[in-house]
Amino acid sequence: MGSKIGVVSWDATTVTDGRFGLLSRVKPGGHRPAPGSKDQILDSYGVVASSLTFSKFTANERMNTSVAAPEEHTSGATKPVPSTPTTSDAGPKLPRVWKRWAIGIVSLVGLAVAGWLIVPTVETALNTVSTDDAYVNGHVTFVAPRVSGQVLRVLVDDNYRVKAGELLVELDPEPYQIQVNLKKAAVTAAEADRRAAEAEVRGLLAQLRSQRWKLQTAMEQVDNQVALLNARAAALRSKEATLERANADLARLKETFGKGASARQELDAGIEAAGVAEAQVKQAAQEVYEVRVTLGLPPRPASGSLTAVPADLNQTFSTVRQTVADFIHIAAQVGLPLNRSEATPTEVLEEFRSRDAARDVDRIFAALIPEAPAVKQADAKLMQARRDLDQAELNLRYCRVYAEIDGVVTRRNVNRGNNILAGQQVMAVRSLTEIWIDANYKETQIAPLKIGQRVDVYADTYGSRRTFRGRITGFTNGTGSTLALLPAQNATGNFVKVVQRLPVRIELEDYDPEVDTLYAGLSVTPYVYYKDQSAGPNAGRRLQDLARPGTPGENRP
Questions:
Q1: What percent of the chain has pLDDT over 70?
Q2: CB of 444 within 8 A of CB of 517?
Q3: Is the pTM of this model over 0.70?
Q4: Which helix (H) or strand (E) holds 116?
Q5: Among 454, 433, 517, 340, which residue's Cα sits nearest to residue 139?
Q6: How far apart are CA 474 and CA 452, in angstroms?
Q7: For the residues of 139-153, what is the DSSP string, one character each?
Q8: Which DSSP letter does residue 30 get?
């Protein structure tokens, strides 16, 4: 009688001269089934069933033997029976004893094997939560160029393994090289404009220096003219005194000449001296008037002395005011805000000197060069030209498309000569290391699960010969139905309750793609040891800590 249960093939019994034997127990692949799996449970049941069948068969055999014995004795009554027993009569008793021992030993062995298979299965079933709705998942990086152009080379194909930074696709760089050359020329022109603007500002600063000295000289000239006015006025008074003396002498000469006490010659000399003194007075007065006019004053004051001048004449004199205006105008061209039109020249110069703590005029002029509007404008144009050059060089580098992660190339859809656009997907790279398990547990299984619990994962690809160790790292905040493109509408009259499934993320801890490679989408069966102590980051919790700024993968437990 032969039977096949699950993946275990049995030849249950073979009866040969009253002997019963378990001939074969073969499992494809030559390995034990996973703990708690259907294969192991059916395997255990098969061993027990075969043991019971063996025991039942041997019992029936003994019963048939005992019933057949009297018939043999009855039929033997008509025949002569030897009075002395022979060795042939005593022979069959030894095999029956051997069979009883064999039955007991085989039964014990069968029970031991059944216990050895069933106990781990029962223990696993009592301490773990499992699901067969689980799959391998991993990061996928879609490769796309940052610039458009014609494909010059494609260096990889589907299923090629690549490293981060490895060249995948190269676009025709010639159009972008031309742009780089043009931008370099623009930078050269902008640098020349900047030097010209600086030279212009230096020329304006030279004029500003000149105007400063002109202003200082103008005020000093006013002071000199005032001093000259005082000197001319003093000379006028001296001439006037000389005229008075000459007139007095002439009066005495006339008096003595009338009395005959002086000669005619002396009188003529006195008349001549008085005339000369009068002419000198007039000349001195004209000189005083001239100085007053140069100072912007009336030749003859309405009242007061000829030397009377305003106290702030050196601040209000027209030449001084014009020089101040020119100084402020040039200062404005170099970016110096001296726009106080009501300020006096002294106040303007003081404000200019106060721009430096040490009142160093040369340092003030040197600091005005980079702050001049023309220089700033030239600097801005130069910076823009350089940024344009940087962008052109960046676009040139973007003609070479590199792998961003380690992985395997998939879904290549580009060939040499294709014209592609910026952002157009040309292939994808699947990571071999950044993978995890998405296990969709029923909502009735979620209660005992927490972050940090140990997980044993069995992949259908490798069967039970390879156990992957992992831990729970998080729970999706919503069932699969709520995250669907078209969520189910349960507010209808035909509602049927269906057990929902919640995706649970399991990170593998001992995964080495070089040894046993897992591919995205493979089916796995995870066993969560929910009675064990949780360990690792966020252990024993349902929610992870708040995300911290960083690159992708740094915040992963």
A1: 80
A2: no
A3: no
A4: helix 93-127
A5: 433
A6: 9
A7: EEEEE--SS-EEEEE
A8: S
